[in-house]
Amino acid sequence: MKYPHETAASGEILRLILQKMVLHPAAFTPPNYAVWYEYLAGINPALIRAMGPLLEGDARLDDDTVEKLYSQYVSECSSDIQKFLRGGIRQLLGKLVESTAEATREAVHFGSRLQTHGDALKGDIDSAKLRSLIENLAGDTGKMQGSMQTLEAQLEASKQEVETLNKEIESARAEALTDPLTQVLNRRGLEAAAQPIFDDPASSGNGFCLLMLDIDHFKKVNDTYGHLFGDKVICAIANTLKSKVKGQDAVARIGGEEFVVLLPDTNINGAFIVAEHIRQAIESGKIRRLDSSEHIGGISISVGIASHTTGATLLELLDRADKALYAAKQGGRNRTSVFTLH
Questions:
Q1: Has this prediction a pTM greater than 0.90?
Q2: Backbone angles phi, psi at 163, to 5 degrees
Q3: Which of 15, 29, 106, 312 has the fewest Cβ atoms surrounding its Cβ within 10 A?
């Protein structure tokens, strides 16, 4: 469940939300409330990291800022995708309603004609009138058959549209779970990938671990070489991560320069080996600048590792890995640190 808080806890969060929201110009909309709720409840690490610098810099959260935060860190899929899907469903339902209404009108008319023909048969009728009646009945039946064939064809077309819409929904869902820059999972995608493992930890016989990685001195990289090069560094690291994992392992980008690797069926020793392979591969690599042939080296990452323990949630595992990552940073960067319970 996304919001596990009981009534008392959620009521306290509501009180805090109102205190915060009145200090900013953004309207009191459901998306604004959701942003503040997940921020103050501490259940959305990526959102917390994004909002922290804004609030520390005394930024005023207006409607545009809230919409961006909501779309990127809270919403399951973007507003554009939602509008597209709603439009497709409305259009499909409109066609079905129109087709059904036309078939209903034809059925009512056919029923009325049958009643008329039935009444005619009750009286005296000669062969000529009987022949005419049969011809009229055949004509009305043909029209009804044509109407039903048209409805059947329209329903078949609607079925095809439903299948197409289903594919588009799946595609939209995949987009909603994918980071657009790197094409690895985003935070929502990580949650979706982790859910089956947390639902049945026994499915990972050797336990499972989580790596949290952060690019060292990334601000300096951006300041020195520009944001386009910074984006290229992020993509290069994402590709390295994908090349170093296998099977059910999952790679996600959960912040600007922060990644997570979920390693099911991997113990702490195996996770450390994977982390070091990744760290060393990135340390030894070079990335070519977009505006020249110069290859830039010296990019490094710090890694924090946390191993799942009975009853721990994904949020707790992320928090432990984050603490281990902080220890790696404090220890000099370009190293791997393992979280230990004291």
A1: no
A2: -65, -40
A3: 15
